Amino acid sequence: MRGDMGADEPAFAMRERVACGAIIIELHGELDILAEQMLGPRMDALTERGRADIVIDLRRVTFMDASGLRLLIRARHRMLCRGGRLRVVRGVPRVSRLMRVAGVETAFDVVDAFPPAADRPPAPAVPSVQLVQTEFGQPEFAQAEFAPAEEAGPRDGSVA
């Protein structure tokens, strides 16, 4: 672990939610080899959906190395093979610089925010966001069923 993080605090985290018909994957903290190993299976499961629309939000990533880049590139490859759409929300300057120097930035559809202000639909009467928190130290990854933006809540009728 880098920085002042204590033994009880995870060095990385991943949150998933649905907004505007897209699955948003918010990555937090340090994307290194341990994060790739722990988050990779869940990212793979999310990118297995044919024709899915996925946005990977890097704004809260504080560190990324080659393993973090590999996680992103694998997600991109899986989405391309399945005919889906993958966008990446630009990260802090050091993360953006790493992507640029590694020569992978142009391979991604990079946006500054999601959804862009012009694309934001009016807020629904019932929230249609489902959150799943996955953190290091909790190796069992929560499974989530994502509903399209038009629907409210999980498809199976359960409460998240």
Quick rundown:
The chain has 160 residues and is an alpha/beta fold. It has three helices and six strands.
State which percent range the strand residues make up. 25-35%
Task: Report on the biggest sheet.
Answer: 6 strands, mixed
Whole-number mean pLDDT: 76
Number of helices: 3
Low-pLDDT windows of residues: 122-160
Compute the number of strand runs.
6
Describe what you observe in this structure.
The protein is of the alpha/beta class and 160 residues long. The protein is 25% helix and 26% strand. The chain has helices at 33-47, 66-81, 93-101; strands spanning 12-19, 22-31, 53-64, 85-89, 109-111, 132-135. Strands 5-4-3-2-1-6 form a six-stranded mixed β-sheet. Helix 1 links the parallel strand 2 and strand 3.
SSE arrangement:
Layout: E1 12-19, E2 22-31, H1 33-47, E3 53-64, H2 66-81, E4 85-89, H3 93-101, E5 109-111, E6 132-135
Parallel strand pairs: 2-3, 3-4, 4-5
Antiparallel strand pairs: 1-2, 1-6
Helix pairs in contact: 1-2
